[in-house]
TrEMBL record:
TM regions (residue ranges): 39-57, 77-94, 115-136, 156-178, 190-208, 220-240
Entry keyword annotation includes Signal: no
Gene Ontology molecular function terms on file: 2 iron, 2 sulfur cluster binding; flavin adenine dinucleotide binding; metal ion binding; oxidoreductase activity
Major location (coarse): membrane
Entry protein name: Putative ferric reductase
Domain FAD-binding FR-type residue range list: 245-345
Cofactor(s) demanded: FAD
Membrane topology: Multi-pass membrane protein
Compartments in which it is found: Membrane
Length: 477
């Protein structure tokens, strides 16, 4: 039976009513493949930066640093090259390339994208300041006239200024203080200006970039990088979603209220057995039912896909999730995905711990059904302060799959707590060890609010769980 957390050992389970599911089958080898992809893509990023630095060096980049005026121009050249490469890397990171999505996962890609984006923007500002300073002969009184001459007399410079303005808008709205004041839908719309900024920057590099034009190998490198970025967006963010939408023709079959403010939408379509989706992943969905249809929102699958239907569940937090309750059966659906690495793809151990807080239990509910495990090999910890979700479904999985379920009800006694109220004198480390003395032998799948997830990761690391066995999904943006 489902147990309420009390910091004590679980009650001994009865024998399962069904035989072990998939006992003795080898684990998915995708985890090893993904580690290799992460290594190779990291090396490719640094190799690209080293390559453009090498071309700058052989073109006299260091020699030019010996003088103030030529030094400013030389620094402007290298910062511009680094910025341009990282700008295109940003596009590739979020272009939904399958091998990147599989290897890194959306959360990690978004964090890397953020670091790369701010670094590229800082380098771009340094490029603008140093290039203008060099062309003005390091005489700051000449800067206004120099800027005017550059913009009006050099090919592509006016478009480059427009690109800079677009990227400033994107960066400004990406700051945490700004994001807290924006709706997700507004932020997402403004963020699309990044693509416009990248496109407007290309003519400047084509028409005035010495490093782009003077060396055939460099020309091939830059054209290949630009082409890969453009093709990735067109194929994986535009073409593939349209093709899958036409092929699978998803429609809403039912809308079910799971709890106050929490709604599940059931979907069906054609040939869903051909859709490469796994339990724990999410879709970016557009309901074609009126105003707001053009804005896609990410929704986690809350049931393992069975080839005939899908189910997504969300809590009313923003405009997109709030309108779920009003969606009518029969509504056509466009979707992107599936995305996310919180699935069997990340698994490397037989034993698994699923830990979720609030509506973060949604993808874990799908994992509890879709993962291959024998009775006793999977444990679920579920934190909630109000009504628990999927109670009957978890009870069924306990009885028929041998899933161990622990409820963690109540409000956290302090901000850094992750397990909730415990008996006096029992630490969270001790409580978790009592339930899972072999915790380090588990793959751990986490989903919940960012602060709770970060706290749980710290708790796991303090108990000796390796970082590559901890897999997270965030509902933040």
């Amino acid at each position: 039976m489902t147990q309420t957390w009390a910091g004590a050992r679980p009650v001994t389970r009865a024998e399962p009513v069904t035989p072990p599911v998939g006992a003795g089958r080898p684990l998915d080898a995708d985890a090893r493949t993904d580690r290799t992809v992460r290594l190779l893509t990291g090396l490719a990023l640094w190799a690209g930066l080293l390559l453009v630095t090498y071309w700058w060096l052989v073109d006299g980049g260091v020699r030019d640093l010996a003088h103030w005026v030529t030094g400013l121009t030389s620094v402007g050249r290298i910062t511009g090259l680094w910025s341009a490469e990282l700008l295109l890397v940003q596009v590739l990171l979020m272009s939904r390339l399958p091998f990147l999505e599989h290897a890194w996962g959306r959360d990690r890609l978004a964090r890397i994208h953020r670091v790369v984006g701010f670094t590229s923007f800082d380098l771009m500002l340094a490029h603008v300041v140093t290039i203008v300073g060099g062309y003005a002969s390091a005489r700051w009184s000449l800067v206004p006239a120099t800027v005017w001459e550059l913009v009006t007399a050099y090919g592509g410079m006016l478009l480059a200024v427009a690109a800079l303005i677009c990227l400033i808008i994107v960066v400004a709205t990406s700051l945490r203080a700004a994001r807290r004041r924006l709706r997700y839908e507004s932020w997402h719309l403004l963020h699309l200006y990044a693509y416009l900024g990248v496109g407007l920057a290309l003519p400047h590099q084509l028409w005035t970039g010495q490093e782009f034009l003077d060396r055939p190998a460099a020309t091939v490198f830059w054209w290949s990088l630009w082409g890969a970025a453009a093709a990735s967006v067109l194929v994986w963010r535009v073409g593939l979603p349209l093709a899958r939408g036409l092929r699978h023709r998803l429609r809403v079959t039912a809308v079910v209220t799971e709890a106050p403010g929490v709604v599940s939408v059931h979907l069906s379509g054609r040939r869903l057995d051909r859709l490469p989706v796994r339990a724990g992943q999410f879709l970016t969905v557009r309901f074609l039912d009126g105003p707001g249809w053009s804005r896609g929102n990410p929704f986690s699958l809350s049931a393992a896909p069975d080839g005939r239907r899908l189910r997504v569940t969300a809590k009313a937090l923003g405009d997109g999730s709030s309108r779920l309750a009003a969606v009518r059966p029969g509504t056509r659906v466009l979707f992107e995905g599936p995305y996310g690495r919180l699935s069997s793809r990340a698994r490397s151990r037989r034993k698994v711990l699923l830990a979720g807080a609030g509506v973060g239990i949604t993808p874990l509910r799908a994992l509890a059904e879709g993962l291959d495990y024998a009775p006793g090999e999977a444990t679920l910890l579920y934190r909630f302060t109000e009504q628990p979700l999927f109670d009957d479904e978890f009870r069924f999985l306990e009885q028929h799959r041998g899933l161990r379920v622990f409820h963690l009800p109540g409000r956290r006694p302090r901000p850094d707590s992750v397990l909730g109220p415990l008996r006096s004198g029992i630490t969270e480390e001790t409580a978790l060890r009592r339930v899972l003395p072999d915790l380090a032998e588990h793959d751990v799948f986490l989903c919940g609010p960012d602060s709770w997830t970060a706290g749980f990761v710290r708790l796991l690391r303090s108990l000796g769980v390796p970082a590559d066995q901890i897999h997270t999904e965030s509902f933040g943006w």
